[in-house]
Q: What sequence folds into this?
């Protein structure tokens, strides 16, 4: 199991994956608005999405767990 953590603080605009999706390293998993700019957050591991720990419009902190891969 791998936990994917945020590399930025901001508000989640859109989730780009769902439970059951396969993701690869550097694949964009969500978009975040930070300092009035939209940024993409990439996966730091590959695997299948087992759990998503954030939702759209939620404020996230740098280092917060976003999703769990199996």
A:
């Amino acid at each position: 199991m791998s936990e994917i953590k945020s590399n930025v603080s901001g508000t989640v605009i859109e989730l780009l994956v769902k439970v059951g999706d396969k993701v690869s390293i550097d694949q964009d998993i969500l978009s975040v608005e930070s300092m009035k700019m939209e940024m993409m957050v990439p996966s730091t591991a590959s695997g299948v999405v087992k759990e998503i720990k954030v939702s759209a419009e939620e404020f996230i902190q740098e280092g917060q767990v976003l999703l769990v891969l199996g």
Summary: The chain is about 0% helix and 55% strand. The beta strands are 2-5, 10-15, 22-23, 28-34, 37-42, 47-52, 59-60, 65-69. The chain has a mean pLDDT of 97. The two ends are 5 Å apart (CA to CA).
